[in-house]
Design goal:
Helices cover 39% and strands 23% of the residues. The protein is α+β, with helices and mostly antiparallel strands. The protein has two domains: 4-41 and 137-184, no CATH class; 44-132, no CATH class.
Length: 212
């Protein structure tokens, strides 16, 4: 299933012609991005490796990076892979002067409380995050939540199109969806034990996300 499969229902609900399809498709895409930013879905979880240079105090996040679940430094020394998990900086946290300890996000950059040491060669950042790209999530989001996407997009488009009755209907349906989506609200941030697991074991950790 794809976002386009929701289009016909949305067109009928708003009582508009096919000439509005481009506008409605953008509305569906925006609704998908809104869901990805507001809730936690197992299928949206991503892991990537980013090289980081000696002396660097930040690195660029992937374009589809939404909620960050974990950040850790990785280096191979003498055939052994070593890890150091960075923690999310809280307000008032002081810098740690023995290499990076905390991180925070500004725009599309992840900043470190302390720059990488000048002799830190061959380091990478392992980043766990939830994608907020509606294109990446289209196949499963449109299959699992087609009605939610229609109701969310419909309520927003109805306001713009001044469709009062359609807005009242879609807004009510969307509020019912919000109650159901409540099970996807709890935030997940991986800890040291979670990150040290193998991929098979890590599947057990992902069970903390609501099942399909």
């Amino acid at each position: 299933m794809a976002y386009g499969d929701i289009l016909q229902d949305l067109r009928e609900g708003l009582a508009v012609s096919a000439s509005y399809d481009g506008r409605l498709m953008r509305g569906i895409s925006n609704a998908a991005r809104s869901l990805l930013r507001a809730y936690n879905f197992r299928e949206a979880l991503r892991r990537t490796t980013i090289p980081i240079l000696a002396g660097a105090s930040s690195f660029t996040l992937p374009p589809d990076c939404g909620k960050i679940k974990a950040v850790r430094l990785v280096v191979v020394e003498g055939g052994t892979t070593l890890y150091k998990r960075l923690r999310r900086r809280e307000e008032g946290t002081l810098p740690y002067y023995n290499g990076p300890m905390f991180y925070w996000v500004e725009s599309m950059s992840c900043l470190l409380d302390t720059a990488m040491p000048s002799n830190a060669v061959g380091y990478n950042v392992e980043l766990w995050y939830q994608t907020d790209d509606p294109v990446v999530a289209e196949s499963w989001l449109s299959t699992r939540f087609p009605d939610v996407l229609e109701h969310k997009a419909g309520s927003e488009q109805a306001i713009k199109l001044r469709k009062t009755e359609a807005f009242q209907l879609y807004a009510q349906l969307w509020q019912e969806d919000v109650a159901i989506l409540g099970r996807y609200i709890p935030e997940i941030e991986f800890g040291d034990m979670d990150l040290s697991m193998g991929d098979t074991q890590r599947e057990q950790v992902l069970e903390r996300y609501p099942a399909v």
